[in-house]
Design a protein that fits this description.
about 240 residues; alpha/beta; Fe-only Hydrogenase (Larger Subunit), Chain L, domain 3; about 35% helix
Length: about 240
């Protein structure tokens, strides 16, 4: 889509993603994310690696003028910002799902019941008289416990959010090290919500570039093209053990 917009062959583009997660390096290499052998993302670097590159180039951000990010990827909503913290993805989804389900404009977009740093937590959201139960877990150990509870019938949810890293992406393996200090994670989470609050647009479906993308290219949410390009599947990765006598 973007290559066509700028009249360039996609193979001539070099796409670099800066991520808080080192697992994105593997993600970028997956064959599912390639077209005719050309990857959607050429390089994935961590936020810590980016900081190292900036320092190595002797760039002083204090002396650089402020600029907006380039469009269209530089345009984001508050819902996009809170993806970085535990509970943020499901809160962003709720902001849109509520309006799509009820047809009403959501005036109060802060869902405090979905926020926090407890490893496993549950909350209910009123969708115009329909109670939606949501489960949230961060850290793989907590994710396992939550799923075990669901399998055992102890917990019943309409939707579940799971993040592998403590605190969510803000505590990712590629982030500046926090050495397990909860105060660092709390400060990052506070900054995330502050950024969200100060955004002019705070719902994902209000992003003008997302609206334009669907109008010009994807058609509508869950269309065949949207499903093919925006969804993926994951497969069990097993390790074969060889016994040597």
């Amino acid at each position: 889509y973007f290559a066509d917009k700028i009249q360039t062959n996609r193979k001539d583009l070099v796409v670099v993603s800066v991520m808080p997660c080192v697992a994105k390096k593997y993600e970028a290499s997956r064959p599912e994310f390639k077209t005719d052998g050309n990857p959607d993302v050429d390089f994935s670097i961590s936020t810590r690696e980016l900081a190292s590159l900036i320092k190595g180039a002797n760039l002083d951000f204090h002396t650089l003028p402020d600029e907006d990010f380039d469009k269209p990827l530089g345009e984001s909503t508050g819902a996009g910002v809170i993806f970085g913290t535990t509970g943020g993805v499901i809160e962003a989804a709720v902001r849109t799902a509520y309006e799509l389900h009820t047809g009403d404009t959501l005036e109060k977009v802060d869902f405090e019941q979905l926020r926090g740093l407890e490893g496993i937590r549950g909350a209910s959201v009123d969708f115009g008289g329909t109670e939606i139960k949501i489960g949230i877990a961060h850290g793989l150990g907590n994710a396992r416990k939550l799923l075990d509870e669901v399998r055992a019938g102890k917990s019943k949810y309409h939707a579940i959010e799971i993040m592998a890293c403590p605190g969510g992406c803000i505590g990712g393996g590629g982030q500046p090290l926090h050495h397990g200090k909860s105060g660092v994670i709390k400060a990052r989470q506070k900054a995330i919500y502050s950024e969200d609050t100060n955004k002019a647009l705070r719902k994902s479906h209000e992003n003008p570039y997302i609206i334009k993308l669907y109008e010009e290219f994807l058609g509508k949410p869950m269309s065949d093209k949207a499903h093919y390009l925006l969804h993926t599947h994951y497969f069990e990765k097993t390790t074969k053990h060889i016994d040597i006598d």
